[in-house]
Design goal:
single chain, alpha+beta, Rossmann fold, 3 domains, eleven-stranded mixed β-sheet, four-stranded antiparallel β-sheet, 24 strands, 28% helix, disordered N terminus
Length: 568
């Protein structure tokens, strides 16, 4: 991995130029799914001037390699179908790919909740044995970090499941060598719903990594287009400038760190871990008894600091884009599904920045792929951490607002899972609800079917005396108080609502009373005789229970535009 980290593109092209044989990126191969309805791109490398011939579906396509060693062809636009074979010849090469399907190709990306594998998921005992659909194919992109673009996937062992197209089966889903507990559970459930709805083959390209912020998934050029992101460009450049020097001393620094950590664990860490276990037990007991959680204990002395990775680690700007997105660019896709944002919500200023950073990333990918404004569908952050104490608190609401604002980009869609998280687990084990809700967004917005894919969305407000009257879009069958129980939304008979806060011009929010009145919600609080703003579910882990009768929760929202640093 280290060898490909710096100046990888130069080394890669030099290597390819040395090959007389025709080569294609690893994303092409047996079992691949090609995108229907577009001229199918096929491309690769060979000697300059070499002739490349592709036979597919009874037709022959030819081109010559350029002076840079690259070649590309656009095949026809096809309807869904298969299986087919593809035959590639020329310059001493004879390659045959088999079991090719034509259907819908989606790229699943983001951080750990997209990475979360089906083997770790709540419904794995049912989902894995039932995964027998030979019309769903997966491709897992093995993680590779790079400070410069890498145009192919790191070479894998032939008997390894990573870096190749595989047909969905219980054996494939249960393979312990794929990612973090198998293929993405969200991607699997998304693909299964598309299969039921569209009745075509679905190819899921899985390229994700836990703990990664949005800036690690943007190209250098993409970051440079926005002056606000200069610090990310500068950080990357510093890493590039010092990479060779830092790499030489890194092994010794790592060895010294491991020795120090071993001593620390013996003298401090082992006992501290036992203290933490007891603290977690005490926190759970306090929650059960509706009491404040005890303060988190601290070790008697800090643990040694791990030396900085010469690459900067998974959070470095451009590092994931270069390593595991660039190798895919050019391959025909329908769109992207995305689950990320947690790592941009650790600090308030980063959370507020997300409204600019996330759409910049989407625009960057679209520009690089050259397929126009392909669908980009994403998950809104779920509930997490301690239940909200005040009506307006924490950082994640500002990430969610950034996600909401990103919907102003064309051909985007968002699934709301504000009810599907876990207070004490940043990786909720139920991925069936998120996967199915994201599929609803695709089925409705991308494939044009008349299904409800959104809960209530705030539209407008008006002040009437000491109350604020809220109106909504996406009401559909009507508003209702409800909650998610397991995998199902259960409606309540009463109309009293939770999760609403109200404030006057002093920007001080109080918990509010709220009731459903037809297709509107009335909100008020005795402490606020002259209301100016309402916020709903404005916390990391809010308690809101407003849904539409179609079983989808209302999106978090605020009616004001007050600066976040003034009153959060």
């Amino acid at each position: 991995m280290r060898k490909t980290a710096l100046f990888a593109i130069t080394l890669f092209l030099l290597t390819q130029a040395a090959f007389a044989a025709i080569t294609l990126p690893a994303i092409f191969g047996t079992n691949m799914v090609l995108q229907r309805g577009i001229p199918v791109p096929v491309y690769g490398w060979a000697d300059a001037g070499a002739q490349v011939t592709i036979g597919f579906k009874g037709k022959t396509y030819k081109t010559n390699t350029g002076t840079d060693g690259k070649w590309s062809l656009k095949l026809a636009s096809y309807k869904a179908g298969g299986p087919y074979d593809m035959h590639i010849t020329g310059n001493g090469t004879d390659i045959t790919y088999t079991n090719i399907l034509i259907g819908e190709v989606w790229l699943a990306s983001g951080q750990s909740n997209m990475e979360f594998g089906i083997q770790n998921e709540k419904h794995k005992a049912d989902a894995i044995p039932a995964g027998t659909d030979d019309q769903i194919h997966f491709f897992y992109v093995p993680m590779n970090l790079s400070l410069t673009p890498v145009y192919d996937i790191v070479k894998q062992s032939p008997d390894w499941p990573n870096g190749k197209w595989l047909v969905c089966s219980p054996q494939v889903l249960g393979d312990p060598h794929v990612g973090w507990g198998g293929y993405s559970a969200v991607a699997l459930y998304f693909a299964e719903q598309l299969r039921k709805s569209a009745n075509v083959a679905v190819g899921m390209i899985c390229s994700y990594r836990g703990g990664t912020p949005a800036q690690s998934w943007i190209s250098e050029e993409g970051l440079k287009q926005a002056p606000a992101f200069t610090r990310y460009v500068d950080t990357r450049q510093r890493l590039v400038d010092h990479y060779n020097e830092d790499s030489k001393t890194y092994p010794q620094r790592q060895a010294s760190y491991r020795d120090s950590l071993k001593i620390w664990n013996t003298e401090v860490g082992d006992a501290y871990n036992q203290t933490l276990k007891q603290w977690n037990t005490d926190v759970a007991a306090a929650k059960t008894n509706n009491q404040p959680a005890p303060p988190r204990p601290k070790p008697s002395r800090p643990a040694p600091m791990e030396p900085a990775d010469p690459l900067g680690g998974y959070q470095s700007p451009t590092i994931c884009y270069n390593g595991v997105i660039t190798p895919l660019i050019g391959y025909g896709i329908k769109g992207v599904i995305w689950y990320q944002g947690e790592s941009n919500g650790d600090r308030l200023d980063d959370a507020v920045e997300y409204k600019d950073l996330f759409p910049r990333m989407i625009s960057d990918w679209r520009a690089k792929w050259g397929l126009g404004d392909f669908p980009f569908l994403f998950m809104e952050l779920p509930n997490f951490r301690g239940v909200a104490v005040t009506p307006s608190q924490d950082n994640w609401p500002w990430v969610r607002e950034g996600q909401e604002k990103t919907l102003s980009l064309p051909n985007t869609g968002m699934a709301n899972i504000i009810d599907a998280g876990e207070a004490l687990n940043i990786h909720p084990t139920n991925k069936l609800v998120p996967g199915n809700r994201l599929a609803l967004v695709a089925i409705n917005k991308v494939y044009g079917k008349n299904v409800v894919s959104s809960g209530p969305v705030y539209k407008s407000m008006k002040v009437v005396g000491n109350k604020i009257i809220l109106s909504f879009d996406e009401v559909h069958k009507g508003l209702v108080q409800a909650s998610l129980v397991g995998d199902d939304v259960v409606n309540a008979e009463v109309k009293d609502l939770k999760g609403f806060g109200i404030a006057g011009d002093d920007h001080k929010f109080y918990w509010a009373k709220a009731v459903i009145n037809g297709n509107t919600v009335e909100v008020w609080a005795d402490e606020v005789p002259n209301p100016a703003s309402v916020r709903y579910d404005w916390a990391d882990n809010p308690a809101g229970n407003l849904y539409n009768k179609n079983g989808l929760p209302a999106r978090p929202f605020r009616t004001d535009s007050w600066p976040p640093f003034d009153h959060n």
